[in-house]
């Protein structure tokens, strides 16, 4: 009779341990996915630091709004590549300094200063999630 009680106790303890192991595993793996790095945005920032329009265009959506000091318009990805290439080449990009960046509801943004030979430009970048990828929807360059 004592063996029966031990068997029930051992079986009950095993079930409780498996339950706690399951809960711990779920919490661990959900914690890993909760802290996603700001991928995409960091690549855009790297492209801005070097004035690499080709690299930047990899993260541009099919249509993008670009605001330059003298003109604001919407462009296709191919047009945006040409516009950004000309802007970077004409101004001689030296660096890009991040002032603030973040994530808001799955959308990423960055505010910084594009440092060029022609002067500094306050820069705003807005990225939106599309098909699981962050893409630039808007970029603004304002002369300081």
Explain what this protein looks like in three dimensions.
The protein is of the alpha+beta class and 144 residues long. It has four helices and six strands. The chain has two domains: 1-35; 41-143, Nuclear Transport Factor 2, Chain: A, CATH 3.10.450.50. The protein has helices at 2-34, 41-50, 53-57, 77-91; strands spanning 60-68, 71-76, 93-104, 107-116, 119-130, 133-143. It has a six-stranded mixed β-sheet, with helices on one face. The longest helix has 33 residues, at 2-34.
Compute the CA-based radius of gyration: 25 Å
Overall mean pLDDT: 85
Question: What's the end-to-end separation, in Å?
Answer: 87 Å
Q: Could you name the CATH class of the largest domain?
A: Alpha Beta
Strand order of the largest sheet: 2-1-6-5-4-3
Number of strands: 6
Largest sheet: 6 strands, mixed
Which CATH architecture of the largest domain? Roll
Q: Sketch the topology as an H/E string, one letter per element.
A: HHHEEHEEEE
Features:
4 helices, 44% helix, elongated, single chain, Nuclear Transport Factor 2, Chain: A, alpha+beta, 2 domains, 144 residues, 6-stranded mixed β-sheet
Question: Would you summarize the structure shown here?
Answer:
With 144 residues, the chain is an alpha+beta fold. The chain has helices at 2-34, 41-50, 53-57, 77-91; strands at 60-68, 71-76, 93-104, 107-116, 119-130, 133-143.
Give the helices and strands, then pairings.
Elements: H1 2-34, H2 41-50, H3 53-57, E1 60-68, E2 71-76, H4 77-91, E3 93-104, E4 107-116, E5 119-130, E6 133-143
